[in-house]
């Protein structure tokens, strides 16, 4: 089969391209910005990439065009597809029909923690000789790539609630038909496509209806929106995690979450790893429960967690020298920001924490969660917010002795360097939080600091 993918360079669509190539298909693709590392990864697989969109980039003998969910009407290639009556589909639908069909799919859904939990789950299966395929919206450090086909029936997928394509406004995950479903949590997000929390619950309910009766839904007992949703109807086995009355319980043995016990059916299993934060304890609990559903013993799953290395851009330490540590983190929702900073605070004690935030998601740009931000940032000693022109509310409302706002990355960087100098010789932890490139702030900051020996 010969495929052309419009919008190929996102993590999800790039993963679809990799899987298609591994199945032996001929793949070409286009995107507005084709740049490393995704461009080089795809080109190394023999995939032809085009910079920009043009009708002539779609070969006359193409079998099917896969349209990414970032592509809208007016795109030259999409208009060509529709005008010519070419066969087209979405990335999620193509994946469901050509990769996930007849496989035991383990899907991880929820507002927070999908990428990390999916990565943990894939690693646990891999380390217990189940060699799963996977498609994850990030790069697990243990694997070094966001997708692989695998050679067993098992496939782990990050089940994103975002819409499928220009012509299919259902969430992508309705195409996956999992047998094991993790529901990590549920809050309002993606204000650009969902009117309210109820609209997201409706999509998750569609997903729940696709789980077979002998499948299992593993859900977080600390989430009222999930409790409410499950009352709409469940036709499968369920397992709860998180609360003291759940089947799966975690008890921290260190404040920062780097040590904890997983309790299941009266047995306790100790975990010691490099990750921190209550949110990662919950992610681990969900991953172990999902692995147990496919037959992995709890003690073996826990052993695998000890070698788990997290995910790129999830509290990834990118600089450590002369008492200054810099972390690159994807957190962009107040809940994720809060748990990330609190976990770091438990780890570093009274050391200085500086939070740097780019409110880049559509929900943050619209100010939907602005009333939660001050509290979410409270574990940091100083916070620098980037108030660029895309933000539709006055971020300066949040300014106080702890929080400052900046309208350019240059001014923010200058203030950030001044703050690190002001703190002198004390240990400093800088957490840069964004789900985008942040105008390369991370590397620009590092370039101003001493080079590690």
Automatic annotation (TrEMBL):
EC nos: 6.3.2.45
Span of domain Mur ligase C-terminal: 313-418
Alphabetical GO biological process terms: cell division; cell wall organization; peptidoglycan biosynthetic process; peptidoglycan turnover; regulation of cell shape
Residues in Mur ligase N-terminal catalytic domain copies: 3-101
Assigned keywords, A-Z: ATP-binding, Cell cycle, Cell division, Cell shape, Cell wall biogenesis/degradation, Ligase, Magnesium, Nucleotide-binding, Peptidoglycan synthesis
One matching Pfam family: Mur_ligase_C
Reactions that this protein is recorded to catalyse: UDP-N-acetyl-alpha-D-muramate + L-alanyl-gamma-D-glutamyl-meso-2,6-diaminopimelate + ATP = UDP-N-acetyl-alpha-D-muramoyl-L-alanyl-gamma-D-glutamyl-meso-2,6-diaminopimelate + ADP + phosphate + H(+)
InterPro entries: Mpl (IPR005757), Mur-like_cat_sf (IPR036565), Mur_ligase_C (IPR004101), Mur_ligase_C_dom_sf (IPR036615), Mur_ligase_cen (IPR013221), Mur_ligase_N (IPR000713), MurCDEF_pg_biosynth (IPR050061)
Pathway(s) the chain acts in: Cell wall biogenesis; peptidoglycan recycling
Binding locations of ATP: 110-116
Xref: PANTHER family: UDP-N-ACETYLMURAMATE--L-ALANINE LIGASE-RELATED, UDP-N-ACETYLMURAMATE--L-ALANYL-GAMMA-D-GLUTAMYL-MESO-2,6-DIAMINOHEPTANDIOATE LIGASE
Function recorded in the entry: Reutilizes the intact tripeptide L-alanyl-gamma-D-glutamyl-meso-diaminopimelate by linking it to UDP-N-acetylmuramate.
Name of this protein: UDP-N-acetylmuramate--L-alanyl-gamma-D-glutamyl-meso-2,6-diaminoheptandioate ligase
Native source organism of the sequence: Arenicella xantha
Organism taxonomic ancestry: Bacteria, Pseudomonadati, Pseudomonadota, Gammaproteobacteria, Arenicellales
Gene name per UniProt: mpl
């Amino acid at each position: 089969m010969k495929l052309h993918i419009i919008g190929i360079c996102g993590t999800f669509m790039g993963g679809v391209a990799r899987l298609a190539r591994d199945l032996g298909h001929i793949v070409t693709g286009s995107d507005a910005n084709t740049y490393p590392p995704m461009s080089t990864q795809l080109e190394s697989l023999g995939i032809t990439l085009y910079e920009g969109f043009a009708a002539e980039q779609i070969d006359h003998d193409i079998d099917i065009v896969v349209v990414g969910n970032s592509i809208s009407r007016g795109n030259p290639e999409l208009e060509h597809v529709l005008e010519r009556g070419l066969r087209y589909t979405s990335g999620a639908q193509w994946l469901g029909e050509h990769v996930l069909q007849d496989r035991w799919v383990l899907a991880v859904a929820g507002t927070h923690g999908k990428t990390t939990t999916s990565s943990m789950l894939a690693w646990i299966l891999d380390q217990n000789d189940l060699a799963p395929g996977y498609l994850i919206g990030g790069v697990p450090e243990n694997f070094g790539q966001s997708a692989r086909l695998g050679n067993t029936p098992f496939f782990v997928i990050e089940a994103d609630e975002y819409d499928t394509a220009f012509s299919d406004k259902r969430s992508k995950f309705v195409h996956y038909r999992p047998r094991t479903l993790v529901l990590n949590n549920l809050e309002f997000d993606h204000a650009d496509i969902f009117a309210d929390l109820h609209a997201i619950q409706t999509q998750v309910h569609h997903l729940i209806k696709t789980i077979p009766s002998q499948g299992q839904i593993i859900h977080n007992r600390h989430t009222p929106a999930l409790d409410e949703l499950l009352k709409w109807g469940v036709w499968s086995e369920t397992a709860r995690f998180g609360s003291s009355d759940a089947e799966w319980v975690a008890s921290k043995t260190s404040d920062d979450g780097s040590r904890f016990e997983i309790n299941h059916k009266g047995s306790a299993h100790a975990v010691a790893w490099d990750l921190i934060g209550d949110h990662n304890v919950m992610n681990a609990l969900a991953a172990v429960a999902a692995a147990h559903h496919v037959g992995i013993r709890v003690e073996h799953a826990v052993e695998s967690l000890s070698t788990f290395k997290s995910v790129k851009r999830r509290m990834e330490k990118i600089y450590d020298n002369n008492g200054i540590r810099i972390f690159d983190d994807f957190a962009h929702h107040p809940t994720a920001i809060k748990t990330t900073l609190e976990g770091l605070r438990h780890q570093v004690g009274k050391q200085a924490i500086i939070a740097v935030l780019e409110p880049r998601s559509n929900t943050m740009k619209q100010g939907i969660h602005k009333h939660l931000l001050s509290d979410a940032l409270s574990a940091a000693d100083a916070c620098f917010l980037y108030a660029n022109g895309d933000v539709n509310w006055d971020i300066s409302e949040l300014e106080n002795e702890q929080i400052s706002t900046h309208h350019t990355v240059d001014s923010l960087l200058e203030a950030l360097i001044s703050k690190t100098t002001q703190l002198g010789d004390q240990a400093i932890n800088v957490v840069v939080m964004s789900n985008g490139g942040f105008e390369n702030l991370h590397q620009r900051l590092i370039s101003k600091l001493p080079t590690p020996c």
